[in-house]
Specification:
Helix content is 40%, strand content 22%. The strands form 2 sheets. The chain has a 10-stranded mixed β-sheet with strand order 2-1-3-12-11-4-5-10-8-9, sandwiched between helices. The chain has a two-stranded antiparallel sheet with strand order 6-7. α5 packs across α6 and α10 crosses α11. The structure holds 3-isopropylmalic acid and manganese (II) ion (MN).
Amino acid sequence: MSSGSLRVAVIGGDGTGPEVAAEGVKVLKAVCQSEGIALELVDYDLGGDRYLRTGEILPDSVLQELGTFPAILLGAIGHPDVAPGILERGLLLTLRFHFDQYINLRPVKLFPGVETPLAGKGPDDIDFVVVRENTEDLYCGMGGFLKKGTPDEVAMQTAVYTRKGCERCIRWAFNYTRKRNKKKRLTLVAKTNVLTYGHDLWWRTFQDVAKEFPDVQTDYNHVDACCMWMVKNPEYYDVIVTTNMFGDIITDLAGVLQGGMGVAAGGNINPEPGGVSMFEPMGGSAPKYTGKHVINPIATIAAVAMLLEHTGHEKAAARVMKAIQIVTGTKMKSQAAGKMGYSTQEVGDLVCQAL
Ligand code: IPM
Ligand code: MN
């Protein structure tokens, strides 16, 4: 029995990244074998250690090779001996921008057996998705200093929004909301009362695209109010579409509601034909846990499920999601590092067994 093939580039990266990526790969191999999917994996040594060793962050030749894969699995980026911004911009953001991964898809789902800090809320209440624009906004890296290091110093950091950039993201979010078929409610999260240029563009574009989707109910929240509602009434949300910077911030809040960084996964998606997409756990490289085998691989395994779904292996994706929920629901004591009741590798094994 053969049902297609799949090529995946694996970037373990820094800190605990390689440990969680290994468990993601373990589950990916197991499900592909059982589903008859011919899997080809190629490992890439990128991250802080390589940078410190060789001065290289992302050689052009590697970038070109990565461009031949439909999907990349990324562990984590961030090294304690490398100044903030160098690896984030040189590796993670470069990959997102170079491959034009304009959707950052972050499902927020409370799995069975997982504890949320929200009193009285359960898996039925916390089940929504954030669609974060992933190529523009404050992330474009435009700006500079004037009179740096003097008392008259000026620093500028410019947010860039384009009609094309927000329209493609908003239209994708409408389509996704329609297909998700839950409440069919799409909430735009922005700050139109202060960002009267950039977010006015988002607002107008949202209204225009909404006309193509009369079956989708639309709503708008200012980002500060969204933080309040997400804690008070998470069950209200179905799909949220938002800008890059706000999406970064609200998905950390959302990640905690779903049980923490140990379970939160995301996809950097280029939805165009031939696009290269990248899937990752939302958590960082957690240097203090490196090599201790205590970090939670569930988020990475959930990222593998997203990767499978995105590459057209829906059945395999559904099996991984189901297996995750068996393990969180019936095995793991906690989703926190060191408190799972199992090592990183054992959690990976449990998910493979549950497949
Ligand atoms: C994330 C991370 C990144 C971001 C950092 C590491 C650049 O926080 O994926 O949410 O800000 O997008
Ligand atoms: Mn973030």
